[in-house]
Amino acid sequence: MTTILLVEDQGLMRSSLEILLTLEEDFDITAVGTGPEALPELRSRAYDIALLDIHVPPPTGLDLVEVVSAEQLPTRCIIITTFSRPGYVRRAMDHGAAGFLIKDQPIGELADAIRRVAAGEVVIPPDLAVAALRLPPNPLSSREIDVLRASADDHTIDEIALHLHLAHSTARNYLSSAIQKLQVTNRASARQIAEHNGWL
């Protein structure tokens, strides 16, 4: 029996996946909706597989992969997402994930991928694996990433600074540095490139 912790914040998606995967006779599923719910589960039970949505409320799916790796938990992690971005694949693998799957895959393929990862394989769609290998490394610092994330919805520098507890000039400098590193002329373009590459 393969024990699986499913971490998915969208209720409909979570219950659908749980129902469909429960139909597989060799799967034992536990489902939660947030990172804070997942952490004690991962630490208290030796799941074979953690099926983690990349964007669950923090700690995110990537954060959870990092915890599993850092704490040397026996669980093998698979990131699931609706976004087929090479940068996400690279980040997931850098964090120690053993699989990366797109949510629109047929349930049979998902079940097969889970079994393969449980057997010790690494499962990534080939086209995404190749694209991830070709992707340049993320040039942004963690603070530049924070500032770019906070710049969504056209927030002003003052709003970004307040949100991140930074001085106005510090927030402006981080934003300018990110724009310069990504070789664009404005923060909207910088954010677009960073999002496309999975750096945010």
TrEMBL record:
- Domain (Response regulatory) ranges: 3-118
Keyword Cell inner membrane listed? no
**One GO biological process term:** phosphorelay signal transduction system
Keyword terms, alphabetized: DNA-binding, Phosphoprotein
- Post-translational modification 4-aspartylphosphate, affected residues: D53
Instruction: Name all HTH luxR-type domain ranges.
Output: 133-198
- Which InterPro entries is this protein grouped with? CheY-like_superfamily, Sig_transdc_resp-reg_C-effctor, Sig_transdc_resp-reg_receiver, Tscrpt_reg_LuxR_C, WalR-like
Gene Ontology MF terms = DNA binding
Q: Which Gene3D superfamilies match?
A: 3.40.50.2300
Q: Please, which domain of life does this record's source organism belong to?
A: Bacteria
Pfam families hit by this protein: GerE (PF00196), Response_reg (PF00072)
- What protein does this entry describe? MerR family transcriptional regulator
Organism, by scientific name, is: Luteipulveratus mongoliensis
